[in-house]
Amino acid sequence: MADKLHFDLVSPERLLLSENVDMVTVPGKEGDFGVLAGHSPMMTTLRPGVINVDEAGKPQRRIFVRGGFAEVTPSGLTVLAEYTIPVEELDQARLDLEIGYAEEDVADAKSDDARLMAQEKLDHLKQMRHAL
Question: What cellular-component terms does GO give this entry (predicted)?
């Protein structure tokens, strides 16, 4: 049996996942990278994208993440993510509707602060839609 990678996925609220898997693909700031057991230690920031969790005999799990850090140590991989949602919970029609509302909010913003907040929300929604 091949060595397993210990993987922890942590959000600001709680530990979301802690298990031994075969491989995890992470959307790092410099590009996607795969982590197997025995990977060299490293740390990187995350860009918005999808984490793929692979384990033999099971369907691949896909989790959208936005912001955070990934750290590989001899004991495994830890991802500290600002925001996470399983890709299967994303709804294309709902996201398109919310993107339309967010675009209106950006156009109707009365101040720079309001425009920046609306634009951030719009960017976040578009990143999730792109994950589909």
Answer: endomembrane system; plasma membrane; proton-transporting ATP synthase complex
